[in-house]
Write a structure and sequence with these properties.
heterodimer; A: mainly beta; 1 helix; B: 317 residues; Arc Repressor Mutant, subunit A; 9 helices; 36% helix; globular; Spo11/TopoVI_A_N (chain B)
Chain lengths: 339, 317
C-alpha cells in the first residue's frame, strides 16, 4: 500500500497509495550518513522495511499502524566491521521461511532467516569473488539468489547450499591500461516465476541489459536500442548512459529500464524489442535549489519499479511504474492504453 | 609541542641509543653553526638531513630531533633558523612587502616556490601592493597546475598548488593572501576522490592556522571554523589567547565532479580501500558539520555519497 523511498539525507519515507495524490504517509530520520538501498517484506499484519546507510549499517523498521524501529537484530547484522551494501527480502511461497540477503563491500553476501520480525543469521556465501557486491535479487520459486559485482560478474547461487551454480562474466569492454572495470553491475532482477534474469551493466559510458536463462545458465540476448547509424560501436546498448535499474512487471511480460540518460524504456521480454519509450521531462519540476547543483542532480532516474496492477483505486488495471530520480523527484506513471 | 621527556644515556650498550645520541649531537652542532652564521638566514629541515644522510637515515628522525631540541630550549624551530622546505608552488603577478622587504612574483618567470614566511606571521607583516586578483585558484596536482598556468597566463589570477596535501607554509600563505584580498574569489580544483576531497577539507575546514589577534583582524571568520585554545600566561604575565582557524573558509569547490561534461577523462573504479576511506571521511565530515548550514559542505558530502553509490572516482583532466 506504500511506495517506500530512502534518501541520501538519511530519511525513509512512505508514500500512501490509497488515493491518486500519493501523500506522504510517514517519514523517519534513520542515519545522518544517508541511505542508499531499501527493501520490503509484506507479512500478514505488517510491512517490514530494511534499509542500509552509507556508513554500512543495516536498519530494520516495521510498519503496522505506525512506523517503528526494530532494534532486536542478530549480532552479525550489528557488526560494526561489516560494511553492508545492497539488500533484498524474499517472501517464501509455501512455508513461513522468509529470507533476507544482504551484500557486503567485501564481495560476500550474507543470508538471514526471518520468523515474524526476528532475523537469525544463516550463512555467508563461500565465494572467491573479492569485487564489491553491488546488487542482489532473490527468487522464491527455484530458491535462487543472484549477486552482481563491481567487476561485471554475476553469480547465481542455490539459496539452500549457497554454492554458485552459474557465473556470468561481462563480455563488455575491458580497459587494457588499468584494472578499472568498465562493466559494473548496476542491477540484477529475476522475472516473476524465476525463469529469467535481467542484468543491467555498464559498458564504458553506456548501459546494457542482458537477459539470462536461469535454469540452464545461458545468455538469451541483450536488449538493444535500435539505431539507424552505422557508426555505432561494438555491442548493443540499451541506454546512452548507465542503466541504473530494471524491473519486471507482475506477469513477467515486460521489463522496464531506466538510466542516467533520462529515458525510461519498456521492453517485451519475449521478443526482446522495445515496446515503449518514456522521455522524462525535467521541466515538470520547478526547484530553485536544483539550478545551483551539479549536472547529475538533473538526472531523472536512479531506480524504478513496476507497481502492481489496480494498486490505486480509480486508476484502472494497467501496469504502473514508479521512478525515483537524482533530481529528488518521485514520478508515478501508468499505462494509458494497450501498449 | 609535546611535554613528554626522552631520556638518552650515553654511552650505552644499546647501539640504537648511541646512534640517537649521535643524531642529537650532530643536529645540535649543525644548528649551532646555523644560528652563529649570517643572521636571519634560514635552513630547511631537508637541508639539514642532507648534511649527514648516513647518520640520520630518515627525514622523520631529523624532524623529531629538531622539534625536541627546539622545545627543550623553549623556542620555536624558526628561532633556530630552521624552516620546513617549501613544497607549494605559486604562479602570480604579485608584489608585496613582507616585514618591510619587497617580494616580487612575476608570471613571466614561471611558477615559483612559495616565498618563505614565518609560520607565526601576523596580518600586519604583509602589505600587498598589487591590485586584488580576480580569482585565487588552488589546485591539487602539479600537472593540472602547469596546464592551468599556460591557460591563465594573461589573466589576473593567482594559482597555488601544494602538490597534494598542503604543508603548513602553503596554508599559512594562503591564509594571509586571502585575508588581505577579501573580495577575491577563492576556488579549489581537486579530484573527485577521497583524497581530493580530504585536501579540500584541509584548506577549507581544518583549523590549522594559529592566530593570536583574532578580534582585531579585519576578517570574517565564521565562529564554527575558529577554535579557541586555552589562554597561556607568558613570561610578562599577560594572557595570550590564541585561536585556530582554517586557511580559507570561503573556499569554493568547483571541480572536478563525478559527473561533469567538461571532464574528458573517464571514471575509475573505487577500490575497497577507497570505499572504507570514504566511509570514515564521511563520518569525519558529518561530525564536523554540527548543524551549520554550509552549502559547500553539502556539496562535498554529496560528492562522496555519489562516489560510493556509483563505485567510481574521477581525476582532473
Amino acid at each position: 500500500m506504500f511506495t517506500v523511498t530512502c534518501s541520501a539525507d538519511g530519511s525513509l519515507k512512505l508514500w500512501s497509495h490509497s488515493s491518486s495524490d500519493r501523500r506522504l504517509e510517514t517519514e523517519v530520520f534513520v542515519d545522518k550518513f544517508g541511505l542508499h538501498h531499501v527493501s520490503l517484506l509484506e507479512t500478514s499484519d505488517s510491512l517490514l522495511i530494511g534499509t542500509v546507510s552509507f556508513s554500512g549499517k543495516f536498519y530494520l523498521y516495521k510498519m503496522s499502524n505506525r512506523l517503528t524501529a526494530v532494534d532486536d537484530l542478530p549480532a552479525e547484522l550489528k557488526n560494526e566491521k561489516s560494511s553492508f551494501w545492497a539488500l533484498k527480502f524474499m517472501k517464501d511461497l509455501e512455508e513461513d521461511h522468509d529470507v533476507l540477503a544482504i551484500t557486503m563491500a567485501s564481495g560476500e553476501t550474507q543470508i538471514y532467516n526471518l520468523h515474524g520480525e526476528t532475523l537469525t543469521y544463516s550463512a555467508t556465501t563461500s565465494s572467491t569473488e573479492k569485487s564489491f557486491a553491488t546488487s542482489v535479487d532473490l527468487d522464491p520459486t527455484f530458491k535462487r539468489m543472484a549477486v552482481g559485482h563491481q567487476n561485471g560478474n554475476v553469480y547465481i547461487y542455490d539459496l539452500e547450499y549457497l554454492k554458485p551454480l552459474y557465473e556470468f562474466q561481462s563480455y563488455g569492454l575491458k580497459k587494457a591500461t588499468s584494472s578499472s572495470s568498465l562493466s559494473t553491475v548496476r542491477c540484477v532482477r529475476f522475472s516473476p516465476g524465476g525463469t529469467l534474469m535481467a542484468v543491467a551493466r555498464d559498458s564504458g559510458a553506456y548501459g546494457t541489459i542482458f537477459l539470462y536463462d536461469v535454469k540452464y545458465g545461458e545468455v538469451i540476448g541483450t536488449l538493444t536500442n535500435a539505431s539507424h547509424s552505422s557508426n555505432v560501436g561494438i555491442g548493443g546498448f540499451a541506454h546512452n548512459s548507465w542503466c541504473m535499474s530494471v524491473s519486471f512487471n507482475e506477469d513477467g511480460t515486460l521489463l522496464a529500464s531506466g538510466g542516467l540518460d533520462d529515458t525510461i524504456r519498456v521492453w517485451s521480454t519475449s521478443t526482446r524489442t522495445k515496446e515503449a519509450n518514456l522521455v522524462v521531462s525535467k521541466s515538470d519540476v520547478d526547484d530553485e535549489a536544483l539550478s545551483h547543483t551539479n549536472q547529475l542532480d538533473h538526472a531523472t532516474c536512479c531506480a524504478l519499479s513496476f507497481t502492481p496492477r489496480g494498486l490505486v483505486p480509480g486508476e484502472g488495471d494497467n501496469d504502473g511504474l514508479v521512478i525515483v530520480g537524482f533530481d529528488r523527484v518521485i514520478r508515478w506513471f501508468r499505462e494509458a492504453g494497450g501498449v | 609541542m609535546t611535554t613528554s621527556t626522552t631520556e638518552i644515556l650515553f654511552p650505552s650498550l644499546d647501539s640504537e641509543i648511541n646512534l640517537k645520541f649521535a643524531c642529537y649531537l650532530k643536529v645540535l652542532r649543525l644548528l649551532f653553526d646555523q644560528v652563529s652564521s649570517t643572521p636571519n638566514s634560514v635552513v630547511s629541515k631537508r637541508q639539514i638531513y642532507y648534511r649527514d644522510v648516513t647518520l640520520f637515515k630518515k627525514q622523520a628522525v631529523i624532524n623529531q630531533c629538531i622539534d625536541d631540541i627546539a622545545s627543550s630550549f623553549g623556542v620555536s624551530t624558526e628561532t633556530l633558523g630552521v624552516v620546513a622546505a617549501q613544497k607549494g608552488l605559486i604562479y602570480a603577478d604579485l608584489q608585496y612587502y613582507y616585514r618591510d622587504k619587497l617580494v616580487n612574483l612575476e608570471k613571466n618567470e614561471g611558477a615559483t616556490l612559495l616565498p618563505l614566511i614565518s609560520l607565526e606571521s601576523r596580518h600586519e607583516d604583509f602589505r600587498f601592493i598589487s591590485s586584488c586578483p580576480e580569482e585565487i585558484i588552488i589546485v591539487e596536482k602539479e600537472s593540472v597546475f602547469s596546464k592551468l598556468c599556460k591557460e591563465h597566463g594573461q589573466k589576473n589570477k593567482i594559482l597555488i598548488t601544494a602538490k597534494g596535501f598542503p604543508d603548513r607554509l602553503t596554508k599559512r600563505f594562503l591564509y594571509h593572501l586571502t585575508q588581505h584580498y577579501p573580495e577575491a574569489k577563492v576556488v579549489a580544483l581537486v579530484d573527485s576522490d577521497v583524497y581530493g576531497l580530504m585536501i579540500l577539507k584541509e584548506y577549507k575546514y581544518t583549523p590549522a592556522i594559529k592566530i593570536t589577534e583574532f578580534p582585531k583582524l579585519p576578517i570574517t571568520v565564521k565562529d564554527q571554523f575558529a577554535r579557541k585554545t586555552i589562554s597561556k600566561l607568558d613570561e610578562l604575565g599577560h594572557m595570550n589567547p590564541s585561536w585556530y582557524v582554517s586557511p580559507c573558509s570561503r573556499l569554493e569547490y568547483v571541480g572536478t565532479f563525478l559527473f561533469d561534461n567538461a571532464n574528458s577523462l573517464g571514471h575509475l573504479d573505487i577500490t575497497c580501500r577507497d570505499f572504507n576511506n570514504m566511509k570514515s571521511f564521511l563520518r569525519t565530515l558529518l561530525e564536523f558539520d554540527h548543524g551549520s548550514p554550509d552549502p559547500e559542505m553539502k556539496k562535498v558530502v554529496r560528492e562522496l555519497q555519489m562516489g560510493m553509490f556509483f563505485f567510481k572516482k574521477r581525476e582532473m583532466d
